[in-house]
Design brief:
731 residues; alpha/beta; 7-stranded parallel beta sheet; 6-stranded parallel beta sheet; 19 strands
Length: 731
Amino acid sequence: MTSGIKAKTTGETLEAHTFACLSVFSSLRECYPDIGEKIGCPEFYKTIFNALFFHDFGKAATGFQEQLNGGKKWHYRHEILSVPFVDALPTGDTDLVKLFVLTHHKDLRELARYTGDPEDELFCGSPFKEYLAEIIPNLQKLSGILKEYPRLMNHYFGEPADLRPIDLTQCTDESWEHIIQSTSKCLRDDRCKQRLKYVGIFGKGSINTCDYLASGGVRKVLKPLPSLDAVFTYPTYTSIQQRCRETKGDAIVISPTGSGKTEAALFWATNNLNQAKGNRIFYLLPYTASINAMYQRLSGRLTPYYKDDGCVSLLHGKASYYLSKMYDDAKESRFLRDVAKKIYSPYKIMTPYQSLKHLFYIKGYEMGLLEMYQGSFILDEIHAYDARTVGLILSMSEFVKNKLDARILLMSATLPGFIRDIFADSLGISNLLTMGKPELSGYTRHECSLLDGDICDHIEEIKNTLRGDEKVLVVCNTVKQAQRVYNSLKGIKPSSRLLHSRFTLGDREKIEREVDSLDLLVGTQAIEVSLDIDYDVCYTEPAPIDALVQRFGRINRRRREDVCRVYVFTRGSEQDRFVYDDLLVERTLEELGDLDLLHEWVLQDITDKIYRNGFGNDEKLFRDVRKTFPRVIEEIIPFSDAERTDDDFYRLFNSFEVVPEKFRTDYLDHIQAGDFYGAMQYTLPLSRGQYHRLKEEGRISTTEGMLFVNARYDSDLGLLVEERDPGAFID
């Protein structure tokens, strides 16, 4: 027999939802059994259990039930009406339970709007007792749920406990307002705030995880596989893989492309699981294309070992769009999108920004920080980020290691020594895993030649190469140069494409599906770490050594030949100075001028020489971030959200999303039809500098909250920012 009290518009009853929350709670506790000890709160999980049991009792109010049945909107907070029921607990810190019940949806600032004098013009609530009286007609139904408490306590803790009777008619505003007031007072005192900080963060994170997953039909949190021996079955392991299988604690891995670094990193993470083997594994990559490819690769490998979907999560700014394209079943893609943002999947493939945003305490950050607790963080290709982002990632790594007991693995084919040393010194990393010269010699795949002049001086040479049987990769430093070069070369072979950041999401997706089967690919930095492609010869504009190594890594990737040729021009275009530090490029050319075979150990040596001055002109930016970001982290206040959104956070780092004028009508038609993923296919990024320049020229307009750019768009060339669209909409 059920109570008949609804908790959801779906018709799910209050007791069904509560029991579902407690089911998730049970598996979450299995993942992090020692968290109460860590934060100095031995009764932590009993407190969370009690808060979950009572958190939705206020939904029994007749007005709320009418709203769930399609009636008029109810203008109060069910969390507030749930608080009086907590007084039924026989023992324990009921104030902390009440605090978690109150804040499981709204933070203290928002709840404060419901306190105070009803005569005050700023007061937006209504008399507490008036709304509490709405629960009285359903008290008999609630009593059936309350009778379940002793059984549930015995089931989860082996300690049956009876609840005390309560009289709702005697409850006043004081029953909940004093919780808001005392907590706010505590948070203004540094010592009190520090005592409450992680209890609050991990507690609210736990309650939200259980509530949100249960609401989505999920009943448990998945654990990582305790062993990967059945997943990656190799007759022998590379030395890097074997050492990662044996290494405990933080580590730095420097190993060439093709040496099995991905598997090695996962072996390391598995070997460093917490005692309960339940912590999360975060695989951080710099580019969405590589993240998408890694997600598909690991999903294919790991899913057969789980009965549930979603053992691997995809997290980046456009993840929802890509999931909608990867899965034909819209329900499945929505499920994978939703659980990726919660503590469910044991393996998460993502950009570092997905973790960084939680340290800016944006709404929902508590779940993010709880998920990071004892996590294993794999930081792949850390040198691909700018100085500011490296500073943010290093500060985040310090925080999760020192405060959240996390583990860190840095991994790269060629890691500048100064970055290696900064992370090793700051994080106390003593495990440096590399190959010796004899083993490294088996990974020598390239001969390098410098070509005097710029790429335009050698177009005929590239054309002659294209007339042969070799697959040719041409890499430019700017989109404009890549478009110009592609126009000169595209007629030689029919199987040719251009790839850069200024294609719409839909067109870029199509190009990335084709890239490994082309005879010619012209691209920008978009190909450096993003794509698993294998070409025969490379022509590239000059760039710092670490960028060139990534470009060379797309050549002879699977070692089909002993060595393949890579050519570097000695001059780039005029705009290159806005992309790379001239001094780093100059040093790179000097070092490459004396080389032929690019042995891996030689590349590492010259990388260290070239970056002997660290970040160069950006060193101050790096140091400023290292000084200020820890202060931001320290400012995190439990039970409070920063007054910023995800969009506010991403604007600190990302470019502006725009739609070319050519697709204005198509985009707006999709929006009007509610097809948001269909609309997203027309978007592309503009750098901040480009955006502001075009805006000053009157070439940016806004409709329905989206920016439209007046520039010609070509499906083969992408956005041509210097050319206006002749059919542009006139505002």
